[in-house]
Amino acid sequence: MLIPREEALLLLRKYVKNDRMIVHSLASEAVLRALARKLGYDPERWGLAGLLHDLDVEITAGDPLNHGPESFRILTGLGIDPEIADAIRMHNEMATGLPRTTVFQHALAAGETITGLIMATALVYPDRRIASVKPSSVVKRMKEKAFAASVKRENILECELIGVPLSDFSALAVDAMKEIAGEIGL
């Protein structure tokens, strides 16, 4: 089952109170929708996964050994499409101990992770705006391990496993986030 975006936003706000995590979820939704359109998948399904992927982050205190499976439990209990719930469970491979194997799983892991690198890149510009970020700058920052050190570059590189080169993926993600810049305050 899919739920309308308005319902998904209410669900997100029920479980996630931190404004930065809400912004991250909105950015992830935008990137996943754009990626779905590019690859010929359903943007509603992929967008829902992007929006709800961190539903359990506050319940689990972001514990990498528990984050993801709790969202899976909540979402399956609500009757959410099992493929969406599975992609959300698998976005954090540490909690499952299993490798990601589907296009959807790789897309969510790459898409939600690149948002952090893009946001960090925007924040080093004088105007602190997504509009100033160039995709080439994101690719350059990928190579700087000390920059946004918590961003798992290997997750972002999963874009290549689904047939999207890093430079194209960076452009897609930056453009998707620019479209919602007002909504995310960047």
What do you see in this structure?
- It is a single chain.
- It is built from eleven helices and no strands.
- By secondary structure, the chain is mainly α.
- The protein has a single domain (5-179), classed as Hypothetical protein af1432 (Orthogonal Bundle).
- The termini are far apart.
- The model has no long low-confidence stretch (mean pLDDT 96).
- It has helices at residues 5-15, 19-39, 43-52, 69-77, 82-90, 93-96, 103-123, 135-142, 153-156, 166-179, 181-184.
- Helix 2 (19-39) packs across helix 7 (103-123).
- The radius of gyration is 15 Å and the shape is globular.
Please count the beta strands (DSSP E, at least 2 residues each): 0
CATH topology: Hypothetical protein af1432
Please report which band the strand proportion falls in: under 5%, 5-15%, 15-25%, 25-35%, 35-45% or over 45%.
under 5%
Overall geometry: globular
Q: Which segments are poorly predicted (pLDDT under 50) over 5 or more consecutive residues?
A: none
Helix content: 55-70%
Compute the separation of the termini in Å. Answer: 32 Å
Put simply, the count of helices is 11
Q: Please state the average pLDDT score.
A: 96
Number of domains: 1
Structural class: mainly alpha
Task: Write down the CATH class.
Answer: Mainly Alpha
User: At CATH's second level, what is the architecture?
Assistant: Orthogonal Bundle
Q: Main beta sheet: strand number and arrangement? A: none
Radius of gyration: 15 Å
**Order of helices and strands, N to C?**
HHHHHHHHHHH
Compact description:
With 186 residues, the protein is an all-alpha fold. The chain is built from eleven helices and no strands.
